Amino acid sequence: MSPRQRILVAGSANLDFVVRAGTIPTPGETVLGRDFQTFPGGKGANQAVASARAGGAATSMLVALGEDDYAERLEASLRAAGVELTIRRQRGVPTGSAFICVSDDGENAITVAPGANACLLGSDLPALDDIGLLLLQLETPLPAIEAWARRARAAGVRVALNAAPAHALPQRLLALIDLLVVNESELAALTGIGDDIGAALARLPVPMVVVTLGALGCCARIDGVLHPCPGFAVEAVDTTAAGDTFCGVLVAALAGGADPEPALARACAASALTCTGDGAQSSIPARDEVEAFLAAAPAVDAGRVAALRAHCGLA
């Protein structure tokens, strides 16, 4: 492995408080839940775990944690996955947490209390001497994210951004990004285009933009050309961390030298597998699980391909 293959994730870590219920409550509604569990989570931490488990590139993470029991669980989960840590410890500030309701059909609604994540600064980024790719999300302060991206660009490090949660972004930040990953709602929020995926992707001034499309798969615009990638059919139990898994596995594959299309297919497979388990980091698959899934997966039928192409305006 060359020194510049290493991945650095700078982002959030949360302890997830998860309740299962028949349906996700609508505004003003109370629903009676069933099972309650806690899981290590947070977009940054989930993506770091996914990248580390994917193999192909060593993964490290810049993370802010409090001095509480939540922090101990999150740190243990990250280290167990093989993520090397740079921790900014915050006194008197709680570790981040998230409150998640998961419905019987596997969908979820999430509210995040940032806690220590909101304390990260642009100056906190560690040395980039051995880093080939920096992966960012939007659960940490935007000024810090922009500072990290600017420093990485100056150092010749590729920058990937998962623009989640949805947030308006300045053009000066987008100009620093090499790979942008969004879901459909985030794509619409960034571009103001909600009914034409191709037009929305074309509006973003980033060399590679990927929109994830749930069970349909994803569609990438790479150097101006659209590349739809079909998803994999699974019986979803919990979609928490599916998008984070996609991001972590995608950057790991790209950092390891994979071409974009097989990297996208691997990310779709890992994301689908994540939906078959409970929780965030607890459901992220290891490399050998993804390999076995891909080897056993039937060929994607023409109907699924046609549905994806139609959704992307390519039919």
From TrEMBL:
Function in brief: Catalyzes the phosphorylation of ribose at O-5 in a reaction requiring ATP and magnesium. The resulting D-ribose-5-phosphate can then be used either for sythesis of nucleotides, histidine, and tryptophan, or as a component of the pentose phosphate pathway.
Catalytic activity entry: D-ribose + ATP = D-ribose 5-phosphate + ADP + H(+)
Any Pfam family: PfkB
Residues of the active site: 244
Residue positions binding substrate: 14-16, 42-46, 139, 244
Subcellular compartments: Cytoplasm
Protein name (Swiss-Prot/TrEMBL): Ribokinase
Molecular function in Gene Ontology: ATP binding; metal ion binding; ribokinase activity
Record entry for activity regulation: Activated by a monovalent cation that binds near, but not in, the active site. The most likely occupant of the site in vivo is potassium. Ion binding induces a conformational change that may alter substrate affinity.
Record-annotated Carbohydrate kinase PfkB domain positions: 5-286
Summary of subunit composition and partner proteins: Homodimer.
Pathway involvement of the protein, from the record: Carbohydrate metabolism; D-ribose degradation; D-ribose 5-phosphate from beta-D-ribopyranose: step 2/2
InterPro entries listed in its UniProt record: PfkB_dom, Ribo/fructo_kinase, Ribokinase, Ribokinase-like
Free-text cofactor note: Requires a divalent cation, most likely magnesium in vivo, as an electrophilic catalyst to aid phosphoryl group transfer. It is the chelate of the metal and the nucleotide that is the actual substrate.
Biological processes annotated in GO: D-ribose catabolic process
Protein family per UniProt: Belongs to the carbohydrate kinase PfkB family. Ribokinase subfamily.
